[in-house]
Design goal:
Length: 318
């Protein structure tokens, strides 16, 4: 059975009715277009209405939807000649982060991103998109390579957060994230970060120190999950709705706060409702930003990047 969010159930019921009518028409050779057309219009209107009025916590649910396109889906759709490179040359390969060389309209680029699994077996392999320190060290190895060869870097962010397990902490999880931020801040090559789903905590930020940060409209980006925030502040994870509202983690909130540079509209019903349209729309935005960044002199990238982050969080009291 397909994964359905609670607020999507009215849509599923309408889709079921339309499907039943079509099946009946095929079986009995009936003409039912006049009955189906109003239902299809009602379905489109209802989907538009529901997705325009999502609460912050509902957007979190959409960002976590298991049918959303993941990093490898975007790589397959938007890039050519992808060659995956593995391992951090220190410990092992981490499948929770994938990356390598690719071409974007013929331009060589390094692409790196978190990768979740589609089923239980794949999620266990990918550790649900939660990277160990070797994943971030692999990503940095690839980014340093991009800088040496004067190639732009494109990162895809989609993780609940860095893996908090004992082994990850023993191998320097915090240091790996901090080192990623330090190195990305000083790389003399264009960096574009794309939040495609769940941007959670330092695990997301480790790939997010970029010249431009763009987000899909139903993705989220936050220092902590709503459940984690509620558990810490109120000792009650059921207060997640309240926490999601307070965290200002949705794409429109982050754009208003000048923490991201552009929000890319998803189709009505979210990226999982029309993955192909989402890939095409996001691809156009990625090409546009890379084209603009590629025109900037490499020696003039770091100062604006530093200024961008130094100005975050500055407010004037009235």
């Amino acid at each position: 059975m397909a994964f359905v969010l609670d607020f999507e159930k009215p849509l599923v019921e309408l889709e079921r009715q339309i499907g039943h009518l079509r099946k009946l028409a095929n079986e009995r050779d009936l003409e039912v277009d006049s009955e189906i057309s109003p239902l299809e219009k009602k379905l489109d209107d209802l989907r538009q209405e529901i997705y325009e009025e999502l609460t912050p916590m509902q957007r979190v649910q959409v960002a976590r939807h298991p049918r959303r396109p993941y990093t490898l889906d975007y790589i397959d759709a938007l890039f050519t000649d992808f060659v995956e490179l593995k391992g951090d040359r220190l410990y092992r390969d981490d499948p929770a982060i994938v990356g390598g060389w690719a071409r974007l309209d013929g331009r060589p680029v390094i692409v790196v991103g978190h990768q979740k699994g589609r089923d239980t077996k794949d999620n266990l392999k990918r550790n649900f998109g939660m990277s160990h320190p070797e994943g971030y060290r692999k990503a940095l190895r690839l980014m340093n390579m991009a800088a040496r060869f004067d190639a732009p870097i494109i990162t895809f962010i989609d993780t609940p957060g860095a893996y908090p397990g004992l082994g990850a902490e023993e191998r320097g999880q915090a240091e790996a994230i901090a080192h990623s931020l330090e190195v990305m801040a000083g790389l003399e090559t264009p960096i574009l970060a794309v939040v495609i789903g769940e941007g959670g905590s330092g695990g997301a930020l480790a790939l997010g120190m970029a010249d431009r940060v763009i987000m899909l409209s139903n993705s989220v980006y936050s220092v902590i999950s709503p459940e984690g925030c509620a558990a810490i502040l109120w000792n009650d994870a059921s207060q997640k709705e309240r926490a999601a509202e307070a965290l200002k983690l949705t794409a429109p909130d982050l754009l208003d706060l000048c923490l991201v540079d552009e929000v890319i509209a998803e189709p009505p019903g979210g990226a999982h409702a029309d993955p192909e349209l989402t890939k095409n729309t996001l691809g156009e935005a990625i090409r546009r930003h890379i084209e603009e960044l590629a025109k900037i002199d490499r020696n003039k990238l770091i100062a604006p990047r530093a200024k961008k982050y130094m100005e975050m969080g500055r407010f004037t009291e009235r």
